[in-house]
Design a protein that fits this description.
Length: about 675
């Protein structure tokens, strides 16, 4: 039998050896081993009172073995997708879902955990171990361990189907994104685009053996068109293709339509919640979050909207007047918003994202990020060129403290074909104690920035630098944890509406003079961002901030109400709900053919269902946390050490609210968020 690298223990995934044909056999073998292992542990627990060493530790080892095999498969499917790999990946989802459901509803395993909780030894466990036990018992109940057999069976069917639907949604969105392109023989329609964007579009064409320029729906391609193209019809064409992806509208209407996926997903989520004894999926979702109730979440979002609405309407009125008077646009259409906003920003502040690009060559921004982390937390980052990676653009790095390695991460910065859009952090290895030795955490850090062209380094916008810092904040949460119990290590066990705290916190260094001096360096001279541009950057920081906040509230309210109000909405009812939310909180023009919801991967193919509000909820925490550094100094050593100790190192070992209070000395306040966002007091 040929060797299967996914079945072997590796410090790092052997990416160069993994083939699609390895996936199904390794998953089948591991799931059989895990089922046998679980049954043996349950049988042992029935003979003697379980302890951490006899129950929790071996279960953790079994789970980690599966995670180490599946992690590289899942990651490659997201970043290096091929038809063969997708088929192999998707073919295992039902098996994995069935195993997850089986273990989460295993009555004997539940009784074993409960026996551990009820035993005298429980009091001797560490806080992290006790937390893991309590979380396990909570999750058993949320999975319906005490349901009658028929409802258990239905719950298993729902979970399996939801897993499949999530993957299908993501696949169709990727296919729809890559199905559309526009080839131009020359640059006659590309007036206004900066050279960096023209280079990207030319490289797109060249990669397909074509001359001229190719516009695609990948972010580095379409975004400059909507921001800078003077050809209004071109903006309309690209905008239409983008907002109708995977829908019944637009140039590929009906070809990859996600509407049936959304309808079935929402109906099944509601049914699942009701099976578990919850009124709605929103209630079910909040069982593991900081927020106490749906009314608290809706009230929080309504309050933000109320505080920002007048200012948002004023900001749009100013944009509309500028577009009429200066750009000759009598009525702003959605495809004009980005273009007119960029023109107004330049007119008002004499600054644009393109002006800033030369000061953020990707290598300098990355090295500056590492310098910020070193100053803040006393850890060093070094590239390991000998570690196996999965693409020439991807680097592997190790974190050191006092000369000893403590973590590692893969950095995958650039957009490419076969890679899903967006930016994210994911686990490769979790920190845990195994066989007396410490397994170090390893993260995947993935972005979709504009690629380098020729022998020049990629030049990032300030927005892209901020995204890089955001994802690295997630990475630090994963890598700087001090927890040795996998279930509460890093981001594991952290309330979903608090998990964005470390990531949003890191963004602040992109706006501070001391931080920017480390991050920026002109591509030709190495000169840091000059004071003149820094002053303009800060002056423009909160340009259209109320409009931006209202957009986030719009998405959050839509998501939450979608999982709170209709039980099984049709595609038309989903659209009607989104229209209703927009009517209440949006200040920009809309078009009937916009099908944004069909590409809302966060809630239909990610972990944010009834949880998109987490971005704003956690931003309250991060803004208030940053205010401690404003008071003490950007790189104040004691404050940095306290943030690391009370937030980053704790993982999910304690309640997020308690951790924040330990760091800040009080409950969070919304005022720093409003101040940082430039939202004026009513």
């Amino acid at each position: 039998m040929s060797r299967n690298p996914l079945l072997e223990r590796h410090t790092l995934p052997p990416f160069g050896e993994i083939r699609p044909e390895h996936v199904a056999p390794s998953v089948d073998t591991l799931l059989e081993e895990l089922r046998d292992g679980v049954e043996a542990l349950v049988a042992e627990a029935e003979q003697a009172t379980p302890t951490w060493a006899s129950l929790a530790a071996p279960l953790e080892e079994l789970s980690d073995r599966l995670a180490q095999a599946w992690s590289p498969v899942s990651h490659l499917n997201s970043t290096m997708s091929t038809p063969e790999l997708r088929e192999a990946h998707d073919g295992c989802l039902e098996k994995l879902s069935a195993y997850s459901t089986w273990i989460s509803q295993h009555e004997g395993l539940f009784r074993a955990w409960q026996a551990l909780k009820d035993s005298p030894d429980f009091a001797t466990l560490s806080d992290a171990q006790q937390r893991a036990v309590n979380n396990a018992l909570r999750d058993f109940r949320l999975a319906g361990v005490d349901l009658p057999a028929d409802k258990k069976q239905r719950s298993a069917e729902i979970r399996s189907r939801l897993s499949s639907l999530s993957s299908t949604f993501s696949n169709q969105l990727l296919d729809a994104t890559q199905a559309w392109s526009l080839d131009l023989e020359d640059d006659s329609r590309l007036g206004g685009l900066p050279q960096s964007a023209l280079d990207t579009l030319a490289a797109n064409a060249e990669s397909k053996g074509k001359k001229g320029y190719r516009i695609t729906l990948d972010f580095p391609s379409f975004f400059p068109v909507l921001s800078y193209a003077e050809d209004r019809e071109l903006r309309r064409e690209v905008y239409t293709a983008f907002v109708t992806r995977a829908s019944d509208q637009g140039p590929n209407a009906g070809e990859y339509d996600n509407a049936p996926i959304m309808e079935e997903t929402l109906a099944l989520r509601r049914e699942m919640a009701e099976l578990m004894g919850f009124a709605t999926y929103a209630d079910y979702s909040l069982a593991t979050k900081m927020a106490d109730s749906p009314s608290q979440v809706v009230g929080f979002l309504d309050d933000l909207a109320e505080r920002a609405l007048d200012q948002g309407q004023q900001e749009f009125s100013e944009l509309d007047a500028f577009a009429k008077d200066t750009l000759g646009l009598e009525a702003l259409a959605p495809w004009d918003i980005g273009f007119a906003s960029e023109k107004l920003r330049e007119a008002r502040y004499a600054i644009s994202q393109e002006q800033l690009r030369p000061y953020f060559p990707a290598p300098k921004a990355v090295q500056g990020l590492f310098s910020v982390v070193e100053r803040l937390y006393g850890v060093q980052v070094e590239r390991d060129s000998d570690a196996p990676t999965y693409h020439p653009d991807v680097g592997f790095y190790r974190l050191y403290e006092n000369g000893a390695p403590i973590a590692g991460f893969y950095l995958d910065l650039y957009a490419r074909e076969g890679k899903r859009g967006g930016a994210w952090m994911d686990e490769c290895r979790v920190r845990r104690r195994r066989d007396g030795e410490l397994q170090l955490p390893v993260a995947y850090l993935t972005c979709n920035f504009t690629r380098p062209v020729g022998d020049k380094p990629a030049l990032l916008t300030h927005d892209e630098v901020t995204t890089l810092f955001h994802e690295f904040g997630h990475g630090l949460h994963h890598m700087l944890t001090r927890q040795d119990v996998a279930d509460v290590s890093g981001i594991n066990g952290v309330a979903w509406d608090a998990v964005e705290l470390p990531s949003q916190f890191m963004e602040n260094f992109c706006w501070e003079r001391e931080g920017l001096d480390l991050i920026s360096g002109h591509v030709e001279t190495g000169e840091p961002l000059p004071d003149e541009l820094f002053d303009k950057l800060i002056a423009a920081k909160n340009f259209q901030s109320a409009m931006g906040l209202l957009r986030q509230v719009e998405l959050s309210l839509f998501d939450f109400r979608l999982h709170l109000e209709p039980a099984a909405p049709s595609a038309a009812e989903i659209q009607a709900l989104l229209d209703d939310v927009r009517a209440k909180v949006s200040v920009v023009p809309r078009v009937d053919f916009n099908r944004f919801q069909n590409s809302f991967g966060h809630i239909f193919a990610g972990g944010y269902a009834a949880g998109y509000y987490s971005y704003k909820w956690a931003e309250v925490l991060s803004a208030d946390a940053w205010s401690a550094f404003e008071e003490a100094g950007t790189f104040d050593a004691e404050t940095g050490a306290r943030f690391r100790r009370e937030i980053l190192e704790q993982g999910g070992a304690r309640d997020a609210a308690d951790l924040f209070k330990a760091f800040r000395g009080r409950d969070p306040s919304i005022e720093p968020l409003l101040r940082h966002s430039g939202i004026r007091a009513a």
